[in-house]
Design goal:
single chain; 483 residues; mainly alpha; Amino acid/polyamine transporter I; globular; disordered N terminus; disordered C terminus
């Protein structure tokens, strides 16, 4: 290949993200708005105001996982994160399936976040009760617009991430403080109440409604590892990415707990929520406190939060696909590995995520959509467990070599705690609960996971998930860090 051809077809990503950019990326991925408001009504109706404590429990658990992941990314600051870490720890096959599960979880969550944001955007433009078709159409518009932003380059992405942080702070901290000062209708004892607003912390409550609410919250505070998914685009990633992940998950856990406490204490009447008279408790509280006219600007901030989360999810998912393609272990790898000339963006991989997202909207009014959404939470934690468990095995066997950022003598104990927490969260999420007359809805995770693993096995068996004979996959460990 000539020098001009090489310049016209970049093969490496640009390191244009700083520590702040990586933090903003992870912050936008989790998004306090998406994390809190997305599950607030469901958790409140399931476990009552006492569900608030799940934010503290999940926040601590996720911070422990982030500590373990920080060591992994410092050792291997590679695009694709979970896929690459597991491959280094347990070999190509285990790594391939870890990344396969992670990739599908990312892309499906990406589509559902845009779908959720479409609901807020519909209310903002005056459609108070959008039909499934209307919401899917708006979500498709968000997907297309977001894909364009991701294709345009990192500068646009950084600007929108910074804007999202401002929107999140105003909508979460600012609004929460206003509610606590001027519209507090309940005492702090309210967060000690169950679904009937009277009973407290009995075993029946803890093992039933509270565990269910814990599953919802565990699904919402995800994405801190997204800073590692763009590791090869971050300056000094071995030190900056661990800091970005830990700062993001710690700060967001505090923000979510604060905002959710403020909303809970500002509920004028819990009875209208528990009776089902009010479908959206957050909107009900905001409308009661601010009035209908003032809610509109808040809805716009919500839309920004959902859009930023979508952008981060799509960027993460496309980087996992690109990392696979660089190793030549996906169908169409020669196309998927290509980068745009000007910005060195993985455009084909971004477009693949957009196509999959569009297909998800086609089934948004069917049971298949419900099955896929249920899969994402469990699938995410299963993907977490791959590098956590294999990393623990490596430590116990004395095969672990720490990177520049490490926990020293606390490495193994923290990894044990991370495995225990992720394992508990995974089992709590996928444990079949009776939510529908249809058995496949109650067992949705296992149905979807089975289909995805079978598809993955077929791809690998057909030779499209393994390097061509006589050709080794790209050696990601050979990537040079900038001097």
């Amino acid at each position: 290949m000539s020098g001009s051809e090489s310049r016209s077809a970049p093969t490496e990503l640009k390191r244009e993200f700083s520590l702040w950019s990586a933090f903003a990326f992870a912050f936008a991925f989790i998004s306090p708005i998406v994390a809190m408001y997305g599950i607030y009504g469901l958790s409140l109706s399931t476990a009552g105001p006492g569900f608030w404590w799940t934010f503290l429990i999940v926040g601590v658990g996720q911070f422990i996982v982030a500590l373990a992941f920080a060591e992994l990314v410092s050792r291997w600051p590679l695009e694709g994160s979970i896929y690459q870490w597991t491959k280094k720890l347990a070999g190509d096959v285990v790594g391939w399936f870890a990344g396969w599960v992670y990739m599908w979880a990312l892309v499906i969550i990406m589509a559902t976040v845009a779908y959720g944001g479409a609901g807020f955007l519909a209310q903002f433009i005056g459609i108070n009760a959008p039909t499934a078709a209307q919401q899917s159409g708006i979500a498709l518009g968000i997907l297309i617009a977001g894909s364009v932003v991701n294709v345009l380059g990192r500068t646009f992405l950084k600007i929108l991430m910074a804007g999202s942080i401002i929107a999140e702070i105003v909508a979460s901290i600012g609004l929460g403080t206003y509610l606590l000062i001027f519209h507090r209708h309940n005492s702090f004892d309210a967060v000690l109440s169950g679904p009937d607003l009277v009973s407290g912390w009995s075993w029946a409550y803890m093992s039933g409604p509270f565990l269910a609410a814990l599953a919802f919250t565990a699904w919402s505070i995800l994405g801190f590892e997204s800073a590692s998914a763009i590791a090869e685009e971050v300056q000094d990633p071995q030190r900056n990415v661990p800091k970005a992940m830990l700062c993001a998950v710690g700060f967001i856990a505090v923000v979510i707990a604060y905002a959710s406490l403020a909303v809970t204490l500002a509920v004028p009447d819990f009875d209208v929520i528990t009776s089902g008279e009010v479908a959206d408790p957050v909107y009900y509280v905001l409308e009661s406190a601010l009035g209908s006219a003032a809610v509109k600007p808040i809805l716009f901030l919500f839309v920004i939060g959902f859009l930023a989360s979508f952008l981060a999810l799509q960027a993460s998912g496309s980087r996992v696909i690109w990392s696979y393609a660089r190793d030549n272990v996906l169908p169409g790898s020669k196309t998927l590995v290509r980068l745009s000339k000007a910005e060195a963006q993985p455009v084909p991989a971004i477009l693949v995520t957009a196509v999959i997202g569009a297909l998800v909207y086609l089934i948004s009014s069917t049971d298949v959509y419900s099955v896929l959404v249920t899969f994402t939470a469990g699938g995410y934690y299963l993907a977490f467990l791959f590098p956590l468990v294999t990393g623990l095995v490596a430590r116990l066997r004395g095969r672990w070599e720490p990177g520049p950022w490490n926990l020293g003598k606390f490495s193994t104990p923290v990894t044990v705690l991370a495995v225990l927490w992720a394992g508990f969260a995974f089992l709590n999420i996928v444990w079949p609960r009776y939510v529908s007359e249809s058995w496949y809805i109650n067992w949705a995770f296992f149905v979807a996971m089975g289909a995805i693993l079978v598809l993955g096995a077929v791809i690998r068996r057909s030779g499209k998930g393994t390097p061509p004979t006589g050709q080794a996959p790209h050696d990601s460990s050979a990537i040079k860090e900038p001097a």
